[in-house]
Amino acid sequence: MRRYSGTIAVWGLLVAGALAAPQDPTQPTRWFKGNTHTHSLNSDGDSTPDDVVRWYREKGYQFVVFTDHEFITPVDGLNAVFGADGKFLVIPGQEVTGRFNITPVHANGLGLTSVVMPRTGTSELDVLRKNIAAIRGAGGLPQINHPNFGWALTAADLAQVEGPALLEIWNGHPTVNNLGGGGVPSAEAMWDAALTAGHRIFGVADDDSHHFKRLADPAAAAPGRGWVVVRAARLERDAILDALRRGDFYASTGVSLSDVQASPTELRIVIAPTASSRYRIEFVGAGGRVLAEVVQSPAVYTFRGDERYVRARVIESNGRMAWTQPVFLQ
């Protein structure tokens, strides 16, 4: 079966209009593991860029995006020392530290090469929209960060954000309220609200890493807690960013997928199993409703044709998870 990203309009079944140039199906692709939210001493991290890059490379990542606050950490020298063709890549970026009154409204600009200063606005949503527009205007890929940090954003806010964009559905920082609470939905449920409203927003997991000198401290924002695995033909900046932009990746906190395939009739997930783990795969549709549950791999969901979108959530028996991106249906 030919591999497709579920967001590319290659079948009559899918919503027309590709988000980026489709992956050439004649070119072999690979999976590349990376982190899209990383801090160093250049903003509020505790380690030098060299130490940060060394940690990710030695732990088996293939790319890392620096997102220091209002600072573009230079990557040419880092790539000269640590980069290797097809093995490791450092990508520039920035965390745009917006706020409305005292409420934090943060967004990453992946691939930014010049600083985008935070915009002001009349509400949290207005600030977010203006900063996303500024990131896009500067050539970056916007990523909405930790929507429940400071209880900044609501599901209704995210349902009004136009894609393509990324959203942190899981952030490794210990105080960002990934799971919601007190009547506030989880970041993942907010994602479903945006998808149900018809917006192209793709879910990421990442570290929001700050503390490389406190790796064993559960109160630290340490690395290695969440990541994305991107499917691309090359480990190059544009290829990685284009794959993220069109949703050709999955997010994980520890579950590895061997493959994700979509055809005109089905979504198929293959898990790379570990010896002691078991898995539950939930296929999720509009409104966050679980459409089907499967306990074996490969896990296959056959489209009925009336779903707005279908995505998969993989739950491992020790609490680790993976999330695939939505296949959008007409």
Question: Overview of this structure, please?
Answer:
With 330 residues, the protein is of the alpha+beta class. 17% of the residues lie in helices and 29% in strands. Strands 1, 2, 3, 9, 10, 13, 14, 16, 17 and 18 form a 10-stranded mixed sheet that branches. A 5-stranded mixed sheet has the order 4-5-6-7-8. The chain is globular and about 50 Å long. The protein starts with 29 loop residues before the first strand and ends with a strand. 47% of the residues are buried.
Largest sheet at a glance? 10 strands, mixed
Low-confidence stretches: 1-21
Shape: globular
Gyration radius from CA atoms, angstroms: 19 Å
Q: Quickly give the structural class.
A: alpha+beta
Determine the strand fraction and express it as a percent band.
Answer: 25-35%
- Give the helix tally: 6
Q: Percent of residues in helical segments?
A: 10-25%
Cα(first) to Cα(last) distance is 22 Å
Mean pLDDT figure: 92
| Helix/strand order | EHEHEEEHEHEHEEHEEEEEEEEE
Number of strands: 18
Break the fold down into its secondary structure elements and pairings.
Elements: E1 30-35, H1 49-58, E2 63-65, H2 76-82, E3 89-91, E4 93-100, E5 103-110, H3 124-137, E6 141-144, H4 155-158, E7 165-171, H5 187-196, E8 201-206, E9 227-232, H6 237-246, E10 249-252, E11 257-262, E12 266-271, E13 279-284, E14 290-294, E15 299-302, E16 309-316, E17 321-324, E18 327-328
Parallel strand pairs: 1-2, 2-3, 6-7, 7-8
Antiparallel strand pairs: 1-9, 4-5, 5-6, 9-10, 10-17, 11-12, 12-15, 13-14, 13-16, 16-17, 16-18
